[in-house]
Design brief:
Blueprint lengths: L1 H16 L16 H19 L16 H18 L11 H13 L3 H19 L6 H19 L1
Length: 158
């Protein structure tokens, strides 16, 4: 019986003694922080949640409050423009309020099949990352960072 408890105790203490493996960010291009990628992913997840809601989308509700105010202002301005561009609805910009443009774009995406919704989310994440980084990165690096983060960090955490 003593042996059983010794083995059990050894197993329990080994569980708590193990340290988490450090997160590798080798696949994220230089100049892009994990926090910046996370901000872009949060925005996209907020957009996806908003599309599932029957209520109208309020632009400022989609952007996390932890983002620098200058970047936040850019995101508020650009989110409807980017969404309209990705849904081929740029003709609405300037004719209607930004909130209406965004809701129209998101309704178009909402009515699309899953593959198109996924493509929209992927492209939106890359575009949002370009804005979050203040334009320091190009499209290719944004896509690379979003892909790496999603596959290697986000999916493993979920």
């Amino acid at each position: 019986m003593k042996t059983f408890f010794k083995v059990a105790w050894a197993v329990i203490t080994s569980l708590f003694a193990s340290k988490p493996k450090p997160v590798s960010t080798d696949g994220i291009p230089d100049g892009i922080s994990i926090a910046e990628v996370e901000h872009a992913i949060v925005i996209v997840n907020n957009v996806r949640a908003a599309m599932a809601s029957p209520l109208a989308v309020v632009i400022t509700d989609l952007i996390p409050g932890t983002i620098d105010n200058t970047i936040r202002e850019q995101l508020v301005k650009q989110l409807p423009v980017v969404s309209a561009g990705l849904t081929y609805a740029k003709n609405l910009i300037g004719k209607f309020p930004d909130g209406m443009v965004l809701n129209s774009a998101l309704n178009t995406v909402k009515e699309s099949d899953q593959a198109d919704q996924d493509a929209f989310a992927h492209n939106l994440a890359a575009r949002m990352l370009m804005i979050v980084t203040g334009g320091r990165i190009n499209w290719s690096n944004a896509v690379m960072a979003v892909e790496y983060y999603f596959k290697n960090l986000y999916l493993k955490a979920v």
